[in-house]
Design brief:
The chain is an alpha/beta fold and about 210 residues long. The chain has 6 helices and 10 strands, in the order H-H-H-E-H-E-E-E-H-E-E-H-E-E-E-E. It has one domain: 3-Layer(aba) Sandwich (Rossmann fold), CATH 3.40.50.150. The longest helix is centred in the first third of the chain and has 9 residues. It is globular, with a radius of gyration of 16 Å.
Length: about 210
């Protein structure tokens, strides 16, 4: 049975996930392949930010930058600087655009992954960068098969870069992402993905050819 967002948020796979909880700024640099401090500019939005420790570190080194973290679970570290918000990334909307938007291993636990992508890409400044971990094999069709090469091709045609080896999606500058898929629900019993951690499959129905 596929879960809607309220049920998914109560799932132990999602609500109690510890993968991102204590991630430090140095680990972001290792995961992303660049130092976030080099790209923050006037603002950094970190989705599925865990404890927010990386943002607290960044605030000490980039005073005055707009630093915002969003996570489903209110288990934030204490420290000055960033704004840390406990809300689902599927529904939260910022009041400002950002020079850097990241989601490190967070989309693994989101239901409507493609819907979140479409929303987030509108929040970039003209030269802003978005980068996130995304396992495209977790985007499934109604019969359970991965959406496959067609989805990858559509994302690249929309101006996104997808690194299949690193399972990483990125782009520079805002854009409208209109993908031909209708979200059906999520499966929290998918098991471990490439990280070795239990993850969520997102199911979609193609809506046009």
């Amino acid at each position: 049975m596929l879960l809607d967002d309220p049920a998914l948020h109560e799932s132990s796979v999602v609500a109690n996930n510890a993968m991102n909880r204590e991630r430090r700024l140095s680990s972001y640099a290792r995961e992303l392949g660049f130092d976030p401090l080099d790209r923050i500019g006037s603002g950094w939005l970190d989705l599925c930010c865990g404890s927010g420790s990386a943002l607290i570190e960044a605030a000490a080194r980039r005073p005055g930058a707009r630093l915002v973290g969003v996570d489903l679970v209110d288990a934030f570290a204490t420290g000055p600087g960033p704004t840390l918000i406990a809300e689902p990334v599927e529904t939260w909307t910022p009041a400002h655009s950002f020079d850097l938007v990241t989601c490190v291993h967070g989309l693994h636990y989101v239901g409507d992954k493609l819907g979140v992508l479409a929303r987030v890409l509108r929040w970039l400044t003209p030269a802003g960068m978005f980068v996130a971990d995304l396992d495209l094999t977790s985007v499934r069709l109604p019969d359970g098969r991965p959406a496959g090469r067609r989805l990858t091709a559509l994302l690249r045609a929309a101006g996104l870069t997808y690194d299949a080896r690193r399972h990483r999606i990125s782009c520079t500058g805002p854009r409208d992402l209109d993908l031909p898929y209708a979200y059906l629900g999520a499966d929290d019993r998918a098991g471990a993905n490439y990280t070795g951690q239990a993850a969520v499959h997102s199911h979609y129905r193609p809506v046009r050819t």
